[in-house]
Structures are given as C-alpha cells and as structure tokens.
C-alpha cells in the first residue's frame, strides 16, 4: 500500500522530484569538477589496491574479487576509467535533474556509489546510495515532473513495435506476413 502510494501519488512525485534534483546536483557537481579539473583515478585505484577494505580483526580482504578487478582491469585501463567516471557522474546528474531516464540514472548512481564503497571510500557515498535508492524505488513517479513524462510513453511505444514485429515474425515464419505451411 505504501509502495503503491509512493510510486503513483502526485505528492510523492513532488517530494521525489525535489530529492532527485538534490541528488542530481551532487552528481553533476562531482562530475563537472572532475571533467574540468584534470581528474585521474590512478592514485585512487592504486590506493584501493594497496590498502583494500579489510576486516579489522583478521586483516582479511573483504572484497578480493573487486580488488583483483581494480588491479588487473581498472589500473591497466586507467585512461578509460578517467573518462568513464567523470562523464558517468555528470550524465547521472543530468538525468536526475531533468528527470530523463530517471530510474536508469538512479540505478547507475547507486552502482557507482557501491563501487566507490567497495574501494574503501566512504565520504558521501552511503548517503547518496540511500537517496538514490529512494529515487529508484519511486520508479516512473520519480520522473513524473520531468522529461520522463514525455520519454517513457515513447519508449514503451517503441518496445511495443519491436515486440509486435518479433511476434509477427515468429507466427508468420518470417515471410513478410505470409504464413508458412509446415
């Protein structure tokens, strides 16, 4: 009942709109500073490998697969990471602020926050993760007062056309509407 209200009510949409604009501003600001400030992730990634998140009692690394990923993929491809992180942060912020592909932007924001946490950076990541989860949970209602109001019906219409074309092809044997005798 609460989830239905949260995902459909206009007043909930207003509250989530204010929240998504705040979260979007945090992302766009972080991304913009990295895009314009000569950002490199190399030192951060090296630090995450040198001092991975570990259990305080046993000193055992808690996310060894993620540390392996950083060491063997992210660091050797740091130039790619240097582009993807700031651009991703900036685009997440834009999506949340304008309310376009809002759920997708919230998802990727939560994903980045989680990856930063796995690397050992707490900062504002837990807070933004929780706020992003609230926006994500609101679903389409999060973008009700944004571009999603116009985009989502167009996307649904496009997917319906694709589904219809696939169904027609499947039922007609792919022969331009002429049924195939078996």
TrEMBL record:
**Primary location class:** membrane
Question: Where found in the cell?
Answer: Membrane
Q: Transmembrane segments in this chain: where?
A: 90-120, 126-147
**Membrane topology term:** Multi-pass membrane protein
Q: What InterPro entries does the database record attribute to this sequence?
A: DoxX
Keywords per UniProt: Membrane, Transmembrane, Transmembrane helix
Give a Gene Ontology cellular component term annotated to this protein: membrane
Could you tell me the superkingdom of the organism this chain comes from?
Answer: Bacteria
Q: What is this protein called?
A: DoxX family protein
